[in-house]
Amino acid sequence: EPESPEASQFRLAAGRIAEVPFGLSTSPAVMSHYGVTANTVTLFRRVDNDRRDLDMNSKDVDAEKMTRFIRMNELRLVTEYNPVTAIGVMQSSLQLHLLLITDKMSPKHPEQMHRYRAAAELFKGKIFFILVDSNLQSNERIVSFFKLKKSQLPALAIFHTPDEEQDVLTLDEVSVERVQDFCNRFLQRMQKKEDEPEEKVLNEEL
Q1: Which pLDDT tens digit goes with each residue over 101-112?
Q2: How many CB atoms lie within 10 A of CB 134?
Q3: How far is CA 58 from the centre of its chain?
Q4: Does the pTM of the predicted model rise above 0.85?
Q5: Which element (helix H / strand E) includes 182?
């Protein structure tokens, strides 16, 4: 109900996250369309066309928990990786992750991000674009996982989650063209890998 305590807490949460659009509906048709049968907060993600639901029937769900639920599960065109967003990143339905590992304190960072977001638009729904700030101590393991040193940054790292296939490219500067070329080459490599077993089966049949 619009005037219920749950709706009041929902509005409080909405006020805390101005950059995320909120909507409140009591329409049975809307609930039926989305398969919702109880009071629910549903987060729709445009990046991977996925959704996350939070059951509101539990009495201890308040604005604080709603805010945390949204922060943990929201994914943006470019999502910054940190301890809060880690769960949403890991649960993304997109299997290809592209990481820009860079120093956010660099004077070049704003322009780099502008170009990185422009490249992300080209691969929406195909590749999950992630920003990794090399200054965060919690991100040091990511830098070392891709066998990089801070002196080699900024760098791009692409990762295919099912088989952990990966590639790394160190950069002098971030450009839409370089990001696009790096992604396309990896996509072609993955496609070739998928085609090889089919060719092998065909040759055996012949």
Answers
A1: 999 999 999 999
A2: 19
A3: 28
A4: no
A5: helix 176-205
